[in-house]
From TrEMBL:
SUPFAM superfamilies: Cytochrome c
UniProtKB keywords: Heme, Iron, Metal-binding
PROSITE patterns the UniProt entry points to: CYTC
Protein name: C-type cytochrome
One annotated GO molecular function: electron transfer activity
Top-level taxonomic group: Bacteria
Species this chain originates from: Erythrobacter ramosus
Domain Cytochrome c: 42-134, 178-272
């Protein structure tokens, strides 16, 4: 269950309410965990690219100054990341991204479970990028969960970010062996949020006028050039717009390297053949 409205992508939602740990340590990445490719040698530029690939602006607006997602679930602003980066240490920011918590609070709807396996060097680059930003705009209100959301939490129907990290830490898309481990890693950090941990898609549209996310085994029918075009331009074969995916591709996946696009496609094609 997610309380977000529309697609939020993956982004560091530095908000929280529920008391959590006093030491907001990021969980250690698995030994030898892969990294996103270094398209830039400058860590700040590498971090900026990752912030786009992982979708920070989806929740926090283009300038990362936050926005209001409040509704009947509560007062739910996403944080102004330019202000948060100036306030918190590198370690604290890393914990928010990968563990979904800060020293005093659990984050509410930060999808840290997607990022819990990121290589620490990639997380450090993202933090370096955030800390390079000039603080702009206001600091937004702390979140306040409404009665409905509190009741859902009490029933176990909704989890805050650290609880979801704990529940999902050992789960991932189907393991297709070492040859496809890199593609699986990228898919785990990106595609899973919309298409589910097993990549079978969703039952409900993520936009009011859209379609439900499809089963990603459909990629097995894509020619390599068509898949690359979709990732780069948001256009499927025949110059078709494909709803939310077209927007996500242009905003996020156009920033993939060629190697990352190839690894994702190879993994999904093997998935379609191995587990149709």
């Amino acid at each position: 269950m997610t309380i977000r409205r529309g697609w939020l992508g993956i982004e560091a939602v530095l908000i929280g309410l529920v008391a959590c740990s006093k030491t907001p340590d990021a969980p250690p990445a698995p030994a030898g965990s892969p990294r996103f490719e270094l398209a830039f040698s400058d860590p700040v530029k590498h971090g900026e690219r990752l912030s786009k690939v992982l979708g920070c602006s989806g929740c926090h607006e283009t300038g990362l100054t936050g926005q209001d997602w409040s509704d009947d679930m509560g007062t739910l602003w996403t944080a102004n990341l330019t202000q948060s980066a100036a306030k918190y240490s590198q370690g604290e920011l890393a914990a928010m991204i990968t563990a979904g918590k800060r020293a005093d609070r659990a984050l509410i709807d930060m999808p840290s479970y997607l990022f819990s396996g990121l290589n620490p060097a990639d997380v450090d680059a993202m933090v370096a990028y955030l800390k390079a930003l000039k603080p702009e705009g206001p600091v937004h209100p702390e979140p306040s969960m409404g009665p409905e959301l509190l009741a859902m939490q009490a029933k176990g129907e909704w989890m805050d970010s650290p609880a979801r990290v704990a529940a999902m830490k050992d789960k991932g898309p189907p393991d297709l062996g070492t040859d496809h481990a890199y593609g699986r890693f990228i898919v785990r950090a990106t595609c899973v949020e919309c298409h589910g941990i097993d990549l079978t898609g969703g039952k409900e549209p993520m936009e009011a006028d859209g379609n439900a996310p499809p089963n990603l085994r459909i990629v097995g029918s894509y020619r390599p050039e068509d898949f690359a075009t979709l990732m780069r331009t948001g256009k499927a074969a025949g110059e078709r717009e494909v709803g939310l995916m077209s927007k996500v591709a242009r905003r996020r996946y156009a920033n993939f390297t060629d190697g990352e696009v190839g690894a994702v496609r190879a993994y999904l094609v093997e998935l379609s053949a191995h587990d149709p």
